[in-house]
Amino acid sequence: MSPQCEHGGRFYKVLGPQLESLDQRDHLIPADVLDAWFPPPFSVIEALCEAMPWLARTSPPTHAEPLASALGEYLGVEKECVLPGPGSSSLIFLALTRWLGCGSEVWVPDPGYAEYRHVASLVGAQVTGSNLWIGSGLESIQQALRSGHEFVVIINPNNPTGWRATSKELIEVLSTRAPTTKVWIDEAYAAYVPEVGSLAAWAATQRGVFVCRTLSKSHALSGLRTACLVGHPDELDSLRAFMPPWSVSFPAQVASIQALKELDYYRSMYAETNRIRIGLASFLSKSGFSVLASEANWVLAQHPDAERVISEAERKEIYFRNPRHMSSKAWTGAIRIAVRSPNETERMKLLLSDCCLPQPHVAVR
Question: 10-40+264-355 falls under which CATH superfamily?
Fold first, then answer.
């Protein structure tokens, strides 16, 4: 087993071994990661620029207490129900290495965000999973809950398949879980799909149910790393004791708190993201790709010559994600493309037009 999980980010090599070529950043299109294509609002940049010399040299609030308060207000829960952390992957490592051990029975979506399977395997857990595809996801989750797994992961909406469920649908399914089953609900991309809602407020009143939220993708703060876990205060305290002090940097705390005040800005960006995604999906469908449903900030497509498409794009510094590492099964012919800016999307379309052979038309589903 690899000591590290496979992720996107092949574009980093263009920036140089010590990031000495950051001036090349505007020439590449990092569509192999799901970072926001839009910038943070101006008020976030202004807050950072004004205070950065002081923020850079000053220790932040030890346990990100101001951030916990702001996140609690944003999610509609008390701050005691919020455990801030430096990104959702950090929280995954913190929780799963504390809760799971050799022989723990874990269910994760397959395909799905690979970090869950990776960390569970590192501690010796027995990992199983099944597909979260459109039309079959709720049945898969309900079966997992009834099978007595110790730990069940739900990614809503699911990366990369695009499956999603409403909060009401999930609460109905979760009502059947055994009291000994912990459930982790990953809402990393929920902000892009308002119909999904959030189970954060509900999880705060439950034992054994946790919601993970991140501002990385939804609030254009991937480089600053801010996330939180929401759950019952008593159960979060057992994790809080193992969260290192000063885990969330001062710039990240200041930027995140300001970003949470700019809801109208982000809503407009989500709407524009949706418009770009629909256009890209339509283009891909007409260009010979089989396009799978997604309502967040990516398009998952299949093409018989996917590897060549990905390779030719990379030669032009356009990076797409081969999602094979997001599944335990052999998975070929798939490409995940992040939604990028309108100008970058046009560049991607030109590239795809040049390197894709005509294939039978498959309509967008």
Answer: Aspartate Aminotransferase, domain 1 (3.90.1150.10)
